[in-house]
Amino acid sequence: MNTLARFLWLAAGCCLTACGNEFLEVKPDQSQRIPSTIADYQAMMDYSTNWMNSGSGHELGFIGGEEFTISDERWDSFPVDLGGPVTYQKHAYIWAKDVFLGGETTTDWTSYTRVLRTNIVLDGLAAIRPSGSDLMAWNEARATALFHRALNYYSMAQLFCGVYDPATASGQPGMPLRLSADLTTPIPRSTLQETYDCILDDLKHASEFLPDMATSVFRPSKAAAFALLARVYLQMGEYQLALESADRSLHINGALLDYNGIAVSARYPFPVYGEGNPEILLMNNLTNTVISRVTSHNILPSLLASYESDDLRIQAFFYAYSDGRITFKGSYRGSSQYFTGLSTGEMYLARAECYTRLGQADKALADVNHLLTHRYVSGRYTALAGMETDELLQRVLLERRKELLFRGVRWEDLRRLNHEGRFQTTLERTIGGKTYALPPGHPNWTWPIPPEAIITGGYQQNERH
Amino acid sequence: MKILFLLLPALCLEAVYAQQITGRVTDKETRAPLSGATLKLKHVNTIHKTDALGNFRIPFSGGNDTLTASYVGYHDVRIPVTTTGPARLEIRMETDASVLDEVVVNTGYYSVAKERATGSFTHVSQEMLDRSVGTNILQRLEGVTNGLQFDRNQLTGENTSGKPELRVRGLSTIEGNASPLIVVDNFPYENDLSTLNPNDILEVTILKDAAAASIWGARAGNGVIVITTKKGTFNQKAKLSYNTNFNFSDQPDLHYNQGFLPSGTVMRIQQEQFERGVYPERPETKIPGYAELLILRRDGLISDAEFAAREAEMGRADIREEALAHLYQTGLSQSHSLNISGGTDRYSYYVAANYDKNRSMVMRNEGNRTSLSMVNTFIPLRNLKISSGIWYTASGSRSNGLTHNAVGLGFSSADPYDRLADDHGNPLPITQFGLRQTYAAVAVDNGLLDWQYRPLEEIALADNTAGNQEIRVSTDAGYSFLNGFSAKMVYQYLKHATSRENYYAPESYYVRNLVNRYTQPNGTLVIPNGGILDRSNLTESHGHSFRVQLNYDRTFGNNHQVAALVGAEGQERITESFPASRLYDYNKDILGGNTKYNYMENYVTRPSGERVPIHLASFLTSRYTNRSLSYFSNASYSLQGKYVVSGSARWDGSNLLGVKANQRGTVLWSAGTSWNLSEEAFYPLRASLPYLRFRVTYGSGGNIDQTQSHYPTIAVGRNTTSGLTQADLLSPGNPYLRWEQVNTLNTGVDWGTRNNRITGSIEWFRKNALHLLGDNLMDPTTGVSGNYKINYAGMVTGGWDVQVNTVNLAGPFRWETNWLVNHARNRITEFYVPVSKVLYHYLNERVPVAGRSLDVIYAIPWNGLRPDNGLPAIYQDGELTENYQTYYQQLTPEDLYVAGVRVPTTYGSVRNTVSYRGLSLSFVVGFKAGSVFRRQSIAPGDEYLFPGPTYHTDYFKRWQQPGDEQFTDVPAGNVPFNSYLKDTYRYSGALISRGDALRLQDVQVSYVVRSNGSLPFSSLRVFGYARNLGILWRANKAGIDPDYPNADFPAPATFAVGAQIDF
């Protein structure tokens, strides 16, 4: 009855005195608000499993990378209508000229929704003048947003832009760089140089203000920021800088999971969402891309054949179906979804590659051996030694394939190595007796921008044939 | 209070006169007081009105004069008066049969005689509501309501009795809520109308144009349906009325659905699939029963003879027949209603109790509804009327049955040869998606529980209940003062609660499946083999509504009548939902269960080995508060009963999130005028056409979308995985947002011929919707996805409403015909943002394109089948080609053609009523025209998709050999599945059918016996009513009911008998 009395007084008062604004001031939904505090902005960046750390922009590279094949039957019966048009995945699988039909609801370009969130957070934080005690939280929230913005621009640049080359980057199209939450300003594609500059800027800022280690695998840390920097520099061919970044990341966290200590034969041997896995620097995952679902893909036979018999990863990573297919089960996400985050294992291999390229073979060998002792059956690993630079580099690159599979990393490696020219690969896939190929230097190594963006944004489309 | 008494006489201006005539005006038959009756003395040029009790007091200067009493719908009464006449006059007025059709429409704010209103109203009387049978009031409006359209395009599957989308005079919004505002008594009603018992409803008024609806302001853009409930009558002795009916509904026509192939055909398809090695033989994949049989033979596990016998048995089976025998029944809903009403001169009451019980056509599904109501009205003082009512409804339902579609438990339904029971009626298992039958069958041997799903056992075990309760309390007080003023205050409280509870018995498949899935590799159980009790989120809403209103209603002299009102109202509605719960190991007898489990642990599950945590009931809570505040006014002036002008204005505000304070509200207005030509002295047609009136109105209504915001908005919650507080971005904010507005121009003419033999109205309207909100086709690079609307379009909806009532035969044998013809067509007039160029959007969604209707269906041009291979003929650059992929990928929206519109542009009904003494027969024939729909069919290879094949009876119409293309459009089946070929066919003109149809909507027979005193009741009415009797004619040749183009079957026919007895 109390509420009734209150309501009546309020209503009568308002009706008669026209002080309606007070009556209409109440929030319609208790849980909804206009973001205004540092905590609000931090919470927006912690929208982890649903957005910020999920559905990462690695899909086209994942499909176009060589790590799995699908059968003719699966190809024929695809797509089954599972909500939303997914035929583009078929086109991506054979690197067709046109990929998107239009109308696709979620694509790698959707990473821009995460960019928008980071921009709202950055604009919002810019309007707050933090007092002394808030400064740390303000810095961390801002650094988190910068990290995510860099991560998304970097991932998209690996799909929608050409390979970075310092000689040509200023003349090549990059990503449209949206750096504020204003939706109305049209922004054309930047140059590739500007795109990488922006990524590096954001990451350098982030690495300065993030905590060394994060309290949650969903939050970026200094270790994660340096790890991503290492990835970016490696892609740019800046091996010295990549080495420094990987080194700084490993310095903060160099822990490895000994596969001898886990039940490698389990259907999913790694903990769900990486809980307790010391290698994970940042959790991120690709939402189950329909065409590569575990129920339909086959591991590329040559990849499978590259593991030695004492390698625990054979058991930890692969699952044999009764119909004879071998599929991937070793996601650090701990489920049928694919892990696309950052790990210490990647950092050991990145550092090893840089050491090799910079002529420090013994240090490279130490990194590779350190990693592989955690991957092989105890006591059965024969440490590598005395390899020549070229041989060692090939071995390190092979170890990258074996360690970082089904993470979207292979696509990035293929692009930079093909560009470099020393370790070129032509991708091939056969469907219904017809073989499709993607040779080095082919324009289709850069994916097309979705037609909606071209139509409404007027961007220059990537040239393909 | 005493002060009030003392003040009252002082306020009465009449008191200054020395002499006066007093008296009362009542209905001659019922003795009910006639409030608002007009009294006029011949020699004195003033007009007076009776008060709420029918009393009047007129100053009289003496001499001889004549007093004329008049009241709408009654014969005038003239009485000579003198100073020496009786102290108090009792004037009894007799109803005038010729003007019995006089209709008073109620807008929720005021009542007005339809003949004096300028706006467009449709009034549905109690008689018309009682004509049909049905537990939902909306059902009773179909086919008898001018300008109200029922659209069932969106009803899919077996939901044919689901809620239709209502359109009052077409569309006036694109993305917003297109359904009309529903008002019960005084305030908007937000709950499902199925809560209201139609027996409690007195009448329904539809407000169609701006003059009628703008009093409801910002939410009236789609029209308003005003429902008025019953009240008691003054000066009436207690009247008891009992009403009952039994309504039987047919079993559904499962054979109607064309998405089906007979057992033999499906088995042949599956054999081909099996021979091609399509079925992966692993535990987590469902393999069709016939393929399993083939596997058994291949592996030598059954003899050829047994194989043949089981194959023959499968070939004979038909899941539809099984379903009809075991899942469906004749539905029966029964309704009982008892009410007592009556009153004295200062008090009236209405008390009613209703009970409905509904046995669904799906076995073990049932529902019931009990409602009680009581309305009391008091007149404690001469000028004060207080009314108070309480309405209570409790309804409950059990949904334990299974439908034909649900038998397969989701994704892929059962095969046509699957059986639900053996010849002795014992339940048989059906293979489940995600589980191979051979794996499930040996579960017990593997130390698990029986893992087979037997639908008929599940029906018997199911115990799913839901309930909802509503209580509505309303009080209003009206006080009239001075001359013509009255003040009114109304308050309403409404509480609504819904709950749902599912109990899964330990023996149920649900529990067995869960236990088995979570049985660990070492055999330990995670989930105990006990019952499970789920309670879903209890939701409750509380609403308070309050209104104050000042009315002024006065007639000056002979010629001027003014009616005006101003007022304000506020509403608050709070909707809360509370955490759900799940109890494992629930024991029904001791009402005990357990929640102590580790919900964080990811357990290995069978058969796939995926690690998943156990299900935790949703502990989400929410609390929404909607508040609105409005100021309104309305006025009309009538001159000599010939000319009326009216106008209204209203300000509406609501507590929208994320808007600037000055953008919380909007102002809406209307103006109208009418001219009663037949009252003019020069009117030449008085003899043949005694009533002729013209009206014009113009004004605005609105529409709001509460999901949109000027500033960025977020929803804060907790992430169950990370444990951190997280916030989702709901809207990035749109600083240019404004309210939608609908400007309506309405013109109409009403006429009546002599003795009202032919009456009717023709109305022409044009609704101009501005600033319509819609999903902008944003550049995805902005990061905006979904839910971002801008004011992006304008739309015009124009049309006609024609109503003609003819009395073909008058006299004891009476024959009347009522024609309703409605036409409404919408067109996007402007579109400020880039139009989609994506083919998929045009074929699957609604794309607003300037110059076209929003309801457009697009199709790919159809050139017939090729004579050489029976595949669709397609041309690229003028050349016949076979490359469907390049053809389809290069199609642009410009290549599509407009096949028609989705919703009929013309609709209506013809109702014929013949009556002789107490016997009456009427039937409604409804028609719809001007729409098209897209049929389903079968594309090459559709039947071979695994999982999820598509079956359709068009399979048998497939092109077989050259020459067939002259008889069929169904492509040949002998090519592999190709999604581009499929899309080229399924979106083509070949599958577009016209939706025009003529249907026998219902038939009603009734017989009324009126007692002359010798019978124990005053009247008895018995009736029979049949509905959904089928299609008389349809334009499409495919045998599809265009009203339900996407449903598995049309709504089954219903047959009702009933009686009403008044004592």
Main attributes?
heterodimer, A: 465 residues, mainly alpha, two-stranded antiparallel ribbon, 19 helices, 45% helix, 9% strand, B: 1063 residues, mainly beta, 22-stranded antiparallel barrel, disordered N terminus
Structural write-up:
- The complex is a heterodimer of chains A (465) and B (1063).
- Chain A has helices at residues 2-17, 20-23, 38-45, 48-52, 59-64, 72-76, 88-93, 111-126, 135-160, 192-209, 222-236, 239-252, 301-305, 313-317, 344-357, 361-373, 389-403, 409-420, 451-457; strands at residues 32-33, 68-70, 173-176, 189-191, 280-282, 285-286, 297-299, 318-320, 326-328, 338-339, 342-343, 427-431, 434-438.
- Chain A is mainly alpha-helical and 465 residues long.
- In chain A, the strands form six sheets. In chain A, strands 2-7 form a two-stranded antiparallel ribbon. A two-stranded antiparallel ribbon of chain A has the order 3-4.
- In chain A, strand 8 and strand 9 (326-328) form a beta hairpin.
- Chain A is globular, with a radius of gyration of 24 Å.
- Mean pLDDT of chain B is 87; it is low at 1-18.
- In chain B, a hairpin with a 3-residue loop joins strand 18 and strand 19.
- In chain B, helix 5 (289-298) packs antiparallel against helix 6 (304-316) and helix 12 packs across helix 13.
- In chain B, the strands form eleven sheets. Chain B has a 22-stranded antiparallel beta barrel. A five-stranded mixed sheet of chain B has the order 10-15-16-13-14. A four-stranded antiparallel sheet of chain B has the order 3-2-5-6, with no helix packed on it.
- Chain B is mainly beta and 1063 residues long.
- At the A-B interface, helix 1, helix 2, strand 1, helix 3 and helix 4 of A face strand 25, strand 26, strand 30, strand 31 and strand 35 of B.
- Strand 1 of chain A pairs antiparallel with strand 35 (713-718) of chain B.
- Largest sheet: number of strands, sense, barrel closure of chain B: 22 strands, antiparallel, barrel
Average of per-residue pLDDT values of chain B: 87
Q: Which regions of chain A have little confidence, pLDDT < 50, spanning 5+ residues?
A: none
- pLDDT averaged residue by residue of chain A: 90
Beta strand count of chain B: 52
Q: Count helical runs of chain A.
A: 19
Quaternary structure state of the chains depicted:
heterodimer
Percent helix of chain B, as a range, is under 10%
Main-sheet strand order of chain A equals: 2-7
As a percent range, the share of strand residues of chain B is 35-45%
Shape of chain A: globular
How many strands appear in the DSSP assignment of chain A?
13
What value does the Rg of chain A take, in angstroms?
24 Å
Tell me about the biggest sheet of chain A? 2 strands, antiparallel
State which percent range the strand residues of chain A make up: 5-15%
Given the helix and strand composition of chain A, which structural class is it? Answer: mainly alpha
Distance between the amino and carboxyl termini of chain B: 40 Å
Alpha-carbon Rg of chain B, integer: 34 Å
